[in-house]
From TrEMBL:
Record InterPro entries: LpxK, P-loop_NTPase
Family: Belongs to the LpxK family.
Alphabetized GO MF terms: ATP binding; lipid-A 4'-kinase activity
Any one biological process term the GO annotation gives: lipopolysaccharide core region biosynthetic process
Protein name as annotated: Tetraacyldisaccharide 4'-kinase
Substrates-to-products reaction catalysed: a lipid A disaccharide + ATP = a lipid IVA + ADP + H(+)
Lineage: superkingdom: Bacteria
Gene Ontology cellular component terms for the protein in this record: plasma membrane
Top-level EC class as recorded in UniProt: transferase
C-alpha cells in the first residue's frame, strides 16, 4: 500500500509534490556539494579503467543485467574482468568480501550472487567500492572493472559512466528526493558517457530490452516452458519495477500458448481435410 502511494506520488503529476519541493531543492544542493567534495578531495587514481553502470532514480532499472552483458562481452574479448558492488543486504562482517557462485544470497546479497553465477568473473562487495577495486587488482590483476551501481559513489574514480533509464517510468516527475525519485538532478544525465533505455524510448539513448526466457523451479532446478503451466500460478516480484517483470511473464505465457493454439488449429484443419487456397 505504501509503495503504491509513493509510486503514484513520484511517477505522476501529483499536486502534493509541491509541498516537498523545497526539500527537493535542498537535497539537490547537498548532492552537488557532496559530489564536488568527493571528486576534488577523495578520489584517487585507479590504474585500470572502471566502468560504472548506474542510474539517477531510486530503485531498479536493469543495471545488473546490463553489467552481466558487458562482463560477458568483455570476457569474450580475452580481458580479465572484475565486478564490484555495494552488496546491499549483505550480512558479512569483513569487507572487501569476495562473492562466489556457492555463496548464500542472504549473506552477500542477491544481485552480487547473480553476477557471480552468470559471469564467472570475480565479484567483490564493499561499502567503499574503491577497496573492492583494490582487492581485485591485488588478487586477480584485473584489467577492467565494472561497478554495478555506484554512479553516486564519487569517492571511486571512473573512466566511463553508463546511465540506465527505465523506459516506462523515465525520471518520474523530474524532482529529487523526497518530492520525486531522483538521486541527483536530471541534468546530471548530460555528463554521462552513454545512456541506455530499458524498454521504451529516450532521446540520444541506446536501447536494451529484457526478454523473459524460461521458468526455473527453485527447489529442484527444473527448467519449464510457459506452456507447461496448466493451472493458475502466482507471480511474486521484489525488484525496483515489478510491473515490468509481471508484464514480461504474462507476455511469455500468452505468446507460447497462442503459438500452441495456432499449431493445434493448423493440425486440426489438416486432419479435417481443409487446405489453404492459393
Amino acid at each position: 500500500m505504501l509503495v503504491a502511494m509513493i509510486d503514484k506520488f513520484w511517477y505522476t503529476r501529483h499536486p502534493l509534490r509541491w509541498l516537498l519541493f523545497p526539500f527537493a531543492l535542498l537535497y539537490e544542493f547537498i548532492s552537488k556539494c557532496r559530489r564536488f567534495f568527493l571528486q576534488r578531495f577523495c578520489q584517487q587514481p585507479i590504474p585500470v579503467p572502471v566502468i560504472v553502470v548506474g542510474n539517477l532514480t531510486v530503485g531498479g532499472v536493469g543495471k545488473t543485467p546490463m553489467v552481466i552483458a558487458l562482463a560477458q562481452q568483455l570476457c569474450a574479448r580475452g580481458l580479465r574482468v572484475g565486478i564490484v558492488s555495494r552488496g546491499y543486504g549483505a550480512k558479512v562482517n569483513v569487507f572487501p568480501y569476495e562473492v562466489t557462485p556457492d555463496s548464500k544470497a542472504d549473506e552477500v546479497g542477491d544481485e552480487p550472487l547473480l553476477l557471480a553465477k552468470k559471469t564467472g568473473c570475480p565479484v567483490v562487495i564493499a561499502p567503499k567500492r574503491k577497496h573492492a577495486v583494490q582487492y581485485l587488482l591485488d588478487t586477480y590483476q584485473t584489467q577492467i572493472v565494472l561497478s554495478d551501481d555506484g554512479l553516486q559513489h564519487y569517492a571511486m574514480a571512473r573512466a566511463m559512466e553508463i546511465v540506465v533509464i527505465d523506459g516506462t517510468r523515465g525520471l518520474g516527475n523530474g524532482l529529487c528526493l523526497p518530492a520525486g525519485p531522483l538521486r541527483e538532478s536530471a541534468r546530471r544525465i548530460k555528463s554521462a558517457d552513454f545512456v541506455i533505455v530499458n524498454g521504451g524510448e529516450w532521446p540520444d539513448a541506446y536501447r536494451m530490452e529484457l526478454v523473459a526466457g524460461k521458468f526455473i523451479q527453485l527447489m529442484s532446478g527444473q527448467v519449464l516452458d510457459a506452456f507447461e503451466f496448466n493451472e493458475k500460478v502466482a507471480a511474486v516480484a521484489a525488484i525496483g519495477n515489478p510491473q515490468r517483470f509481471l508484464r514480461h511473464s504474462l507476455n511469455l505465457v500468452c505468446s507460447l500458448r497462442l503459438i500452441l493454439l495456432l499449431i493445434t488449429i493448423v493440425f486440426s484443419q489438416r486432419n479435417c481435410g481443409f487446405q489453404k487456397k492459393e
